[in-house]
Design a protein that fits this description.
homodimer, alpha/beta, Alpha/beta knot, six-stranded parallel beta sheet, four-stranded mixed beta sheet, 10 helices, 10 strands, 34% helix, elongated
Amino acid sequence: MISKNKKKFLSSLQQKKYRKKYAAFMGEGHKINYDLLTENISCLEIFATREWIDENTNILPEKVTEVTTAELKSISNLKSPPQVIGIYEIVDHDITAKAFSETLVLAIDGIQDPGNMGTIIRIADWFGIKHVICSEDTADLYNPKVVQATMGAIARVKVYYVDLPEFVRDYKNETKLPVYGTFLEGENIYGRELSEKGMIVMGNEGKGISREIEKLITDKLFIPNYPPDATTSESLNVAVATAVVCSEFRRRMI
Amino acid sequence: MISKNKKKFLSSLQQKKYRKKYAAFMGEGHKINYDLLTENISCLEIFATREWIDENTNILPEKVTEVTTAELKSISNLKSPPQVIGIYEIVDHDITAKAFSETLVLAIDGIQDPGNMGTIIRIADWFGIKHVICSEDTADLYNPKVVQATMGAIARVKVYYVDLPEFVRDYKNETKLPVYGTFLEGENIYGRELSEKGMIVMGNEGKGISREIEKLITDKLFIPNYPPDATTSESLNVAVATAVVCSEFRRRMI
């Protein structure tokens, strides 16, 4: 049974200010909870049906509350109520720009759509990008819609919110690595050399990369449309562009 | 002014059965209407503010109705009401498999999410794929959410709904071209040869390519995760995978 107070707490986690206050977020459904539990993300409580509990005894956290499907439905955001809802701890990771000098990192400059944000975390996970650095105005990772769109990748990719222009400046100074961004006037990404270490910046859905960050980009890339002289869409969706760029970086390393 | 009857008509276009009955669909906002009008898609009527009409005199269709922002808001699906809403004719194109023997075509096998569907049309447009063949259970192109997600690409890409297994069978027989699909057990797409002509099949969000179509695939491809032995997301979002695959085909042709 879920107490009235617990229900109130769960529903408060829809809002960023309460997620911050309680340092907690909610994940719904088997896939996401399975990934979070097996990656040892600190779990505060699991609400699940008897059936789910019985089938997942090997991954259960300390605190498990058995509930009915009807109860899960009453606290779920999903159209079809899940068998399990978990509450996990939000841990703030400290970072320094220098820590990323041996790897490829992704920086997100103001992406707003929760679906795009979650999809980008899933892309980072697929292409082995372990760290995603976000500007403070980027969609919140712990927004339930973002959590769902990550399809479990939230358990494996570390996401940081920082003063992005300041961070990119430090990153450049301390690592001397390239900072990539996509621009319509950029260089054809297919033909040029790409570094195995560096930063890839992806910008806001409508406005692209902000002026302040654009000044810090060392390598402007372009995903060519086909054929090059055709009238076509003005751009690709930002998650789609992120995937094509990450794929191009990794293609050369496989 | 929009009459009560017209409002009823517009609101009926939310539903597929009425879009079919009236052979009409609705596009909202400047970008989509601009693209549809300049690509000469047959426009039944435009509802727009005085300001929008004055700024777009060169592309206006025959029937233009001036309305207020409040009126547009009352018929719009968008959060921020658009300056213009247009009603366009749905034209059914007849096709034969043979017609696609000189090009690269995309086939969609049961994609359900309107956002994914629209994004895929936008991807096809970017990568110069002019024809998209869909199974009958694929999300309707003229669903307002799909129309919006195409960001105008709906004006340039031709989309057909067919009995897909039958169509793919005919296509193979008549063109002898390869039929590609992505599978976890497929071949690394980066390293292998890809034809300039052929069909790329993308499957349903959860179930992938259906059994019946899978039997017709001649070339199974795989987008490698990185590093190849890492625990990672189980798959990429289908629109994201479509983009990476299309990018790989076009990379070799630019």
